[in-house]
Amino acid sequence: MTDMLLGIPAFTTSHAGVDRMGAECRIDPSVSVMRFGQRSDVLCLADGVSIYAQTRLVLGDVVADPCVGILIGARTIVNVGGYLSGEGGLEIGEDVLIGPHAKLLSAGHAIDGGDVVIARNRITRAKIVVEDGAWIGAGAIVLEGVTIGRGAVVAAGALVRQDVPAGMVAAGMPARLIRSRRGEAWPEPESEAAAACWVQRVGSGLKSFFREGREVK
Question: Which keywords does UniProt give here (predicted)?
């Protein structure tokens, strides 16, 4: 008797809107891809990727900008109700966990200057990178231009506007670094000089941590 797997997408070798798919990928039939224009290799999945029900993969106009695209690494799991925007470029590494209803937004709308009607203003685009082994918790939002480092954790419900270095845990609205995964406390800098010192000590992965927040889509 064949084992029954309830709530887990079946294996598939193709899905509407996906350009390239590796072996043993699971994609629920309810997963939708929004794209138009002609361009190949824009949406590519490596081996063993799983994308659960009601997830939305958004590319928009695939010829609008060379950065448009979604690449998902091997064995990564995108849980139910995710919203992944590749309009500004989205690269997800291997063995990444993306929790239910998480949103990765690589594009937005310019809000300064221009027309008073936001919909008439230019689209802003900046690539999101999620490195190998990271975990983005349920309901978290990651904004354009952010890098989530290798093995980093974004807590459920967090709003991430700045980079999260490898091995760190970020939580809150907006998100801030709270500790490393090894349990070491993350000190609060008392001055810009102290902040700069910590940036230098921890490494180049923190170079964007104290820069101004990005616009919210």
Answer: Acyltransferase, Repeat, Transferase
